[in-house]
Structures
1.
Amino acid sequence: MAKAELKLCPFCGGEAEIKDHGMSTGGWMISCNNINNSPDKISCGVLMSCSADYTARTLKEIHENAKQRTIVAWNTRTQAKDKDNG
């Protein structure tokens, strides 16, 4: 899989940030941290995560796969489909 580049928030156009939630879970989460101009400084608050494809051979490959799947899902504005929920 080619490395995907993270796009802006699909709802507000703000900068998106990807955070690593640990190799043991394969977990990554993308969020929009754009703060609007309201007095209470509410953030956009859009979040997305995606599960890994556990057919990879090593934990590192699983972790990188999860990152790329999360970025692709964010960029296409949909969750990656589960094999079971297809």
2.
Amino acid sequence: MVIHNPKILPLENGDRLTRSEFERRYQAMPRVKKAELIEGKVYMASPVRIIHAATPGKQFADNTTIRLDLDHLSSFDKIAATTGVIC
């Protein structure tokens, strides 16, 4: 019996993918912190980090990707949130 385990290809800047394939590849690459799918095209940028503010319970992030709906992910320059909202 042959077990077929297809290798998940890494995300590459400029790939043309469906939302489901983008998310499958993105989830398989935990070190990738910044990738977007816009109109079916993958955009990747430099890694970013979350900044913990001096105010307890607050976090700030820049260049953050957020899912807007089932087919679109987008990035924002800056986001402020209470602890537990940004993951």
